[in-house]
Design brief:
The protein is an alpha/beta fold and about 270 residues long. The chain contains eleven helices and eight strands. Helix 5 links the parallel strand 5 and strand 6.
């Protein structure tokens, strides 16, 4: 049955995708394996997916086989399940920096020819507010692309793009939630310094970030234009902006993204 999904690895990113797919399909058709049995047990209890005793059993019983492991682990993980990659299957990798051609070479060495999809999500897919980039190779059928996108849709926005953009885009949307969490925490810290209770300061900060993101997406206006609209002449906001500029706020964020990009590109080598 094509609407079946195996996940080899159930870490933070893999677990987030598992949760999304379980909302978009019958959870019993989602098979997971990870050496951390506590983690898989928690996911099974939360989503209704099925825990498999080993990676090979998971791969043998699904159409879409997700490799949700670290880049340095992927070659061995893929070779382990190669004997079970028979019939109509699609390999889906979320390993940062690992090109589809590298996965294809491992399969070819095992005398296996299967379609490969490279996937890059971010962790907010766990709550349906994420972003998932999807890059299928030319051998993936339109039917399989449609099925995969439908299964991933509960995680948030999906975008089919050329693989050449994935490494550059990864720090912008997949690494950046960590930076945003730091920003929210810092906003809340400032609120606490000013006398706002911690719980309320954190809630206010998170809602402000959520609302600001919605303004960018829904109005289509440049972030600088939206920033200027908040900065009244002689007001408190422009004073805060000046303090951020003194600390090279924008340059620091841009540098963080670029350095993360260089690391991502190196991971697959």
């Amino acid at each position: 049955m094509k609407n079946t999904f195996a996940f080899i690895g159930a870490g933070n990113m893999g677990g987030a995708i598992i949760e999304a797919v379980c909302r978009g399909t019958e959870p019993g058709n989602v098979l997971i394996y990870d050496r951390d049995t506590k983690k898989t047990a928690e996911l099974a209890e939360k989503t209704g997916c099925r825990v498999m005793p080993n990676a090979r059993d998971a791969a043998a019983n699904a159409h879409f086989v997700f490799l949700c492991v670290k880049p340095n682990v992927l070659p061995d993980a893929l070779r382990e399940i190669c004997p079970d990659l028979k019939g109509d299957k699609v390999i889906v990798s979320i390993a940062a920096g690992v090109a589809k051609s590298s996965i294809g070479a491992i399969l070819e060495a095992a005398d296996i020819s299967l379609p490969v999809v490279r996937l890059m999500p971010n962790t907010p897919v766990a709550v349906g507010k994420g972003m998932i980039l999807v890059s299928p190779d030319n051998s993936v059928s339109e039917e399989d692309v449609t099925l995969l996108l439908a299964a991933l849709a509960p995680g948030g926005l999906t975008s089919v793009i050329d693989e050449s953009y994935i490494d550059a885009a990864t720090p912008v949307f997949s690494c950046s939630p960590a930076y945003v969490y730091m920003f929210i925490e810092a906003l809340a810290d400032g609120g606490v310094m000013a006398g706002v209770p911690r719980e309320k300061a954190q809630s206010f900060a998170a809602q402000a970030v959520l609302g600001a993101a919605a303004m960018v997406l829904e109005t289509g206006k440049h972030p600088g234009q939206l920033k200027d609209a908040v900065c009244s002449p002689g007001g408190s906001t422009i004073v805060g902006v000046e303090e951020l500029e003194k600390s090279a706020f924008r340059a620091a964020v841009a540098s963080a993204v670029y350095e993360a990009y260089k690391k991502t590109a190196a991971l697959g080598k």
